[in-house]
Amino acid sequence: MKKVHVQLTLNGEPAEFLAEPRQTLLECLRDNLNLTGTKEGCGDGNCGSCSVLLDGQLVTSCLVLGVETDGLRVDTVEGIAKGSTLHPIQKAFIDNAALQCGICTPGFLMATKSLLEHNPNPTEPEIRLWLANNLCRCTGYDKIVRAVMIAAAEMQESAQ
Amino acid sequence: MRDSGPHESARGHVTGAALYTDDLLGRFPRLLHAWPVCAPHAHAALLRLDTDAALATPGVCTVLTGADVPGEGNTGANRHDEPMFPLEAMHHQQAVAWVLGETLEAAQRGAALVRAEYEELPPILTIEAAIAADSYLSGPHRMVRGDVSALERSALKFEGELRIGGQEHFYLETQCAIAWLDETGGVSVQCSTQHPAEAQEIAARVLNLPRSQVTVECLRMGGAFGGKEVQSNPWVAVAALGAWKTGRPVRVRLTRKLDMALTGKRHPYLIRYATGFAEDGRMEGLRATLYSDGGWSLDLSEPILWRSMFHCDNAYLLPNVELTGYVCRTHKTSQTAFRGFGGPQGMLAIEEILDQAARRLGMRPEAIRERNFYREGNSTHYGQPVKDASRIQRIWDELKASSSFEARREEIARWNADSPYRKRGIAMTPVKFGVSFTATFFNQAGALVLIFRDGSVQVNHGGTEMGQGLNTKVRRIAAETLGVPLEAIRLMPTNTGKVPNTAPTAASAGTDLNGAAVANACSELRERLREVAAALLDCAAVEVQFEQGRVSAPGKEPLPFGRVCEEAYRRRVSLSAEGYYRTPEIHYDPKTGRGRPFYYFAYGAAVSEVELESFTGDCRVRRVDLLEDVGDSLAEVIDRGQLEGGFVQGLGWLTIEELLWDSHGRLATAGASTYKLPSWSELPEVFKVSFLPRATEPGVIFGSKAVGEPPLMLAISAREAIREAIAAFGSGGPVHLDSPATPERIFFAIRAQQEQGGPA
Ligand code: FES
Ligand code: FES
Prior knowledge:
The complex is a heterodimer. By secondary structure, chain A is an alpha+beta fold. Chain A has two domains: 4-79, Beta-grasp domain (Ubiquitin-like (UB roll), Roll); 88-159, [2Fe-2S]-binding domain (DNA polymerase, domain 1, Orthogonal Bundle). Chain A is 34% helix and 16% strand. Chain A has helices spanning 25-32, 88-95, 105-118, 124-130, 142-159, and strands spanning 4-10, 13-19, 51-54, 57-60, 73-75. In chain A, a hairpin with a 2-residue loop joins β1 (4-10) and β2 (13-19). In chain A, α2 (88-95) packs antiparallel against α5 (142-159). The longest helix of chain A has 18 residues, at 142-159. Chain A is globular. In chain B, the strands form seven sheets. Chain B has an eight-stranded mixed beta sheet, with helices on both faces. A five-stranded mixed beta sheet of chain B has the order 7-15-14-13-8. The longest helix of chain B is centred in the last third of the chain and has 28 residues, at 510-537. Chain B has three domains: 10-122 and 177-253, Aldehyde Oxidoreductase, domain 3 (Alpha-Beta Complex), CATH 3.90.1170; 269-438 and 590-757, Aldehyde oxidase/xanthine dehydrogenase, molybdopterin binding domain (Aldehyde Oxidoreductase, domain 4, 2-Layer Sandwich), CATH 3.30.365.10; 444-582, Aldehyde oxidase/xanthine dehydrogenase, molybdopterin binding domain (Aldehyde Oxidoreductase, domain 4, 2-Layer Sandwich), CATH 3.30.365. By secondary structure, chain B is an alpha+beta fold. The chains are: A alpha+beta, B alpha+beta. Chains A and B meet through α2, α3 and α5 of A and α1 and α16 of B. The complex binds FE2/S2 (inorganic) cluster (2 copies). One FE2/S2 (inorganic) cluster is lined by residues 40-43, 45-50, 60, 62 of chain A.
C-alpha cells in the first residue's frame, strides 16, 4: 500500500512521517517516530494507556489513524516536561506514588492534563469520571486521585 | 531511619523514558515479527499443516514448525508437558505454528494462509466433567491432622460446595520477547519475565545449547502478578528459535486478545466440604476436597494447590482436618501463578464455611471468626508453629476500634430496617499468609555489587521489577549498608549474565531474598573499605563510619566515599562482591504433608461496608479499612501502594472479574471490552489504610515483611459484607454465593433470600 506523507505539530515542534493508511496513530508514534512513551494496553479503546491530545482533545491513539493527524497538533507524554523541568502533574504523580509499574502512567498524565485544561479545579467525583477510561492494574487508583487533586491545587496556586 | 525516596524509575515513568521490552523495537534493524497459527478447537488432533501459501505471501520470511527445533521443542517448566508445536491442540487458540514476517501484518496475513487440518476430539471444559472423566494432572494430595471423624459428633454438622472463579492477570503490558544472535555467537533475549533464569533454561533447551550461550535480560515489567513467572517462557522460546533459524532479531508480542486467549490465569476451584461445629462456634472437624482447574498442562499447579491447602486454615485453628486436593486437567489455557498463588482460594473456603456456620448457629460472623483464631502456642495443620499468633487478635481489636465496627454495624441495621430495596452490609475478615516459596529450593538469591573508583555503585540482583517497588527497596538497602546517598546507587536491569541461577521474583519474597543478598554483598564491601579508610583517616577500623557518602571517624576530617574507593583500588583491594542469601529453617515434605514451609506469616485484617440494590444486584463499596502488619516498612509509599492495589485486585477477583468459557471452550471474555476490570467505580468511596505499629520482624531484611500478596486476600471482607447485605433481605439464614459475586449472582441470591421469607 502506498504510504502517505503526514505533517503535523508534535509536542509543539513541526514533524512529519510516512504512514500506511491502515496504521493507527499509536503505531505511527511508536514505530515510525520512535516515541515509545505512549503505550498499548488493549488496542481497542478500552484501557486509556495510549491516550494523547489531538488538537487539544483527549483521544485514545489506538482508535485514530495516523493519516488523520495531518495538519493537526498531537501532544504526547514526551512533551509534558519543559526540558528537564517536570510539569506539576508529573511531580504530583511522583510525590504521591501514583505509579507502580508505570505503564499506565503516560495515559493517566495525558488524561489529567486534558482534565485540568478543561476544569482547573475539579472535585473528586469529577476526577473519577474524567479518568474513568483509564485502567490501572497496580495502584488501586486511590493515589492517582490524590495526585490529581494535588496537581490541580498546585497549578491553581502558581497561576495566581 | 531514612526514607526510600520515590519509586526508583518514577522519573522515567512520568516522562515516558522508562523502557519496557516492546519499546526496544527501534533498536533492532531487520527485525522480524511473529504471529501464531491458532487451533480453532479446544481439543483436536492436527492432521496436516500446509505452509506453501503462507510462504508465498510477500513479506513472509518463514514459518516455524516442529521440524525447525534443534533441541527439545517443549516449554513445560517442570514436567516438560508443553510441546511448542503440538500435534494435538489442547485448548482453543493454542498456537500450532508461528509465522515470521517483515511486518506484523505480513506475519498475520501469512498465518491466515497456513492451512491446518484437524480432527476434533471431545473437550473437557469444566471441573465436574474432569472429575467424571478422572482427568487429573496431579493428586490426590493430602494434609491431615487429628481425627476428622470428630465432626460426626458435633452439635452442628453440614455439607456444602463452593465454586470459585479464576482471574485474568491483565498486566497492562502484554507478553513480549525479543531475541537475537549476539556479537559473540550466543543468543540474547530481552523479555518481560519474572524468571529470567528459567527463560534462559527454556531457550537453551529448545536450541540445544548450554545455558552459558543464552543471556536473558529483563528491564522492567508493566505488571506481572504471577502471569510472567512461567507463562512468559513460550514466547521467549519462539523468539529464540526464530532468531536461531533466520539469523535475524525476532519479536514476539501478544496483543491483548491473544494474551488473554493463550496465557494461563488464576485457577478456578470447586471445593466440597463437610464440617462440624460446637454450639459455641468452635470448629471441631473439617473434611474438604479441593479441585483446581489446571487447564491443559501442569505449570505451577501443584505448589499452587499445596498453598491452597496450607491456607485452608487462614487464621483459625483446625483441630481435626482432612484435606484432599486434585489438579484437574481440562482443555483450557494452563492456569498459573497469580498473586496469592492458591492461598486466596483456600482462605475463601474457610471464610465461606465459618459464615455458613455462624448463620446456622445464629452467631455473628465476626464472633465465630474470633472464637476460632489461632492462639500463642498453636501449630498449623501441617505442623508449623504459628509464630506471633497473638498478632491476629491484636490486629483484630485495633481495627475493630479504629473502624468503629460495632457502632457502624448497629447503624447499618437501623438503616436497613427503613430501606426495603437497598441493604447495607459490613464484615470483617483476617488474613494470615505464609511467606516463602513452597518449593523450598527457590528460597535463595544472589547479587553482584560493583563499586567504581569514583564511588558510584552498580547493583545487580536476581529479582525483577514489575512495579512492586523491589528496586526502590533494594536501592535503599544498598545505600544504607554502604553509607552512600540513594543517588549513588544505580540499579541494573536483571540479567542472567550478571547473577546466575536465580529464583523467580514471586511469593512476595523478592525483597526478603534479593534485598538480603544485596545487603550481604554491600556489607562485605563496606568491611573491605573500612580497613582502607582506617589507614587514610589514621584511626582504628571500628571507629570508621559510613554515612551519606562521607567516611569519617571521631575527630577526623571526613573523606568523600569516592576518595576511599580510589585508595582501595590503588591498594589492590577488590571493589566488587557477590552476595548470597538463603532463607533458613524452612522445609516441607509433600508426601507427609508436614513441615515448616514458611519463614514467617504476614498478618492483616480488613473491614468492608457495601450497599446492594435489589432490582439489579448492583454493589457499591462504601468504605474499606485495612490494617496490615508489614514489619518495619522499607518504603511506606510503596507498601501502601501494594496494599491498596492488592485489595482492589482482590475486590475485582471476588466481585466483577468473570472468566466465561463457552460450550466450545472458547474464552468469551477475551478482551478489555468483555472482561471487566476494577475501574474507578469500584474504588471504595472511603479507603483507609494503616500499618500495624511496633511490628519489627526479626531475621528479615531491615525488620520488614513481605507485602506483595497478602492484601489481595483482605478483599474477602468485601465478599462477606456482600453476603451480610444479602442476608438482610431475608431472615438472616445461610446465603449461598459462588464467587465472583457479580451483580447477577447477587441479584439471584437476594431473590433466594426474599423467597425464604423476608423480615417482617
Ligand atoms: S491501547 Fe488504546 S485504549 Fe487501550
Ligand atoms: S501502575 Fe501498573 S498499570 Fe498502573
